[in-house]
## 1
Amino acid sequence: QVHVVESGGGLVQPGGSLRLSCAASGRTASKYDMAWFRQAPGKMREFVAAIRYSGSGTNYADSVKGRFTISKDSDKTTAYLQMNSLKPDDTAVYYCAARDPSSSTWEYWGQGTQVTVSS
């Protein structure tokens, strides 16, 4: 069982930056792939970025490539999402998820953190 908690959301102006954190806890937390999803009002939740448990492989949605960077800390239990050049369209609740590397399903989810991009 893995428990994930997001932090770092807030209000930022267009063109600004924000960094989200996702802390995973549990006996095997360092062995899990981690990802970020987001859901804007009236829209379905969408994939943003993912990183392998080892921190060596990453994947991004086309809409955030070149602007967002996902990473893990040295003990592999915290994932970060560095968001630069933010746009109003990036406004959403951002969710962190974790899964066993052998699974195709994101099994563990956080409660979400609000990101609002507005002037």
Note: The chain has a mean pLDDT of 94.
## 2
Amino acid sequence: QVQLVESGGGLVQAGGSLRLSCAASGTIFSINVMGWYRQAPGKQRELVAAITSGGSTNYADSVKGRFTISRDNAKNTVYLQMNSLKPEDTAVYYCNANVRRTDWRVYDYWGQGTQVTVSS
């Protein structure tokens, strides 16, 4: 089994910063893409940012220039540095990982979610 454990959410004022972390553990052979999604109340879950094992990144237009995704492949950990936060960034943030397990099967795994609240 594979587990994703997130940390780093919280309450911050507009213009502030937060850093999210997500560590994957378990029967992992390799991880291709790792990413962050978010879901605000009454809205669909949306991609925030993603990063491949080679370091290629992709961002939602709404966060470009403010958020930075990075990863430590040796630690199977992905980070999301969030700067210049806005109230509209308020959501539950979920970590996602596309994992090739040691039994060679490939699955998508999700973290439990961490709340980010930005006050105006």
Note: The mean pLDDT is 97.
## 3
Amino acid sequence: QVQLVESGGGLVQPGGSLRLSCAASGFTLDYYAIGWFRQAPGKEREGVSCTSSSDGSTSYADSVKGRFTISRDSNKNTVYLEMNSLKPEDTAVYYCAAGPHPCGSRWYHWGQGTQVTVSS
């Protein structure tokens, strides 16, 4: 069964850090571009970051550049999103998705999401 499972969300104070995980089962993440997305209440879903192992490229939304880092562990079939210097506006449900190389607009598989809340 093809599945993506996010974890690592939670409640954190402004300025804090979290590391989200996106674990795959039923397929190999290295064969896909992996994107992180988020959706805040009342807002559209937005792309946060993407990594493509075909060319080693990574990309970030301007709003998270310098604060978030995407990485993958092929042995664990998992992609991570390290989030530092978190702000209240980072509050959202975060999703990962798998799509064809390189990072683009088509996504085959989605996870169920993990809630991130940044609040004092």
Note: The longest strand covers residues 18-25.
